[in-house]
Amino acid sequence: MAARGVKSPYRQGVLDALPFLAVVGPFGLLFGVVSREAGLTIFESLSFSVVVIAGAAQFTALQLMSDHAPTLVAVASALAINLRMAMYSASMTPHLGHLPLWKRCFVAYFLVDQTYALGALNFERSPWTAAEKFRYFMGTVTPVCFPWYISTLIGAWAGSAIPTDFGLDFAVPIAFLAMVGPMLRTPAHMAAAFTGAVVALLAAGLPFNLGLIVGGLAGMIAGAQVEQRIEREEEPA
């Protein structure tokens, strides 16, 4: 998904991110509906999406809050799910880390799964400067983050008019499959994904969705171990 003849990096970013509208819209609608059913006001639902801007963590925290889980568990679960953002940030630093502070603040705030996935796929093989990469990144933000706010607001406003069993939750697995699939390019990536999925399923019975945290940690450990083993094997004797 490099430049492909499109002169404007921003426009190319918008075009590359447009397919994500098919999942961002339903996902945001669903969160708006669920948050209203959990007792949040329209303003609180929208604020949740604007401040956190991380769908999986928002659903997890909201579910735990609805189940009257301890606040510490809800916060820790959301933070554990968002630990991947630290890895995203480290991956983007070589490309965007030399930008002015205000631009880095925008990148840090809008760095979500979709914008990271597109950036990671394009930045390594593109001839763009850091400024052009920033414009591309902001292009990917436009069809992803702003529709997330709008769809959350519509879902919260509609409230019970959109039933939770309407089938909008199909967007969650499709979105993550679309993002993760193209990035499973090395044995370390595949080991991390497979181990994390298996362990999370085996630990699904743990209370407060702790199985997801255990699976994520297991996946990161497995990926790191495989990568270190490959590096040792590639070192000259």
TrEMBL record:
It comes from Roseivivax marinus. It holds the Pfam family AzlC. The keyword Transport applies. It is found in: Cell membrane. The keyword Mitochondrion does not apply. One of its GO terms (cellular component) is plasma membrane. It is a multi-pass membrane protein. InterPro entries: Brnchd-chn_aa_trnsp_permease (IPR011606). The chain crosses the membrane at residues 17-34, 46-65, 71-89, 101-123, 135-159, 166-184, 190-222. Belongs to the AzlC family. One of its GO terms (biological process) is L-valine transmembrane transport. This is AzlC-like protein. Keywords: Cell membrane, Membrane, Transmembrane, Transmembrane helix, Transport.
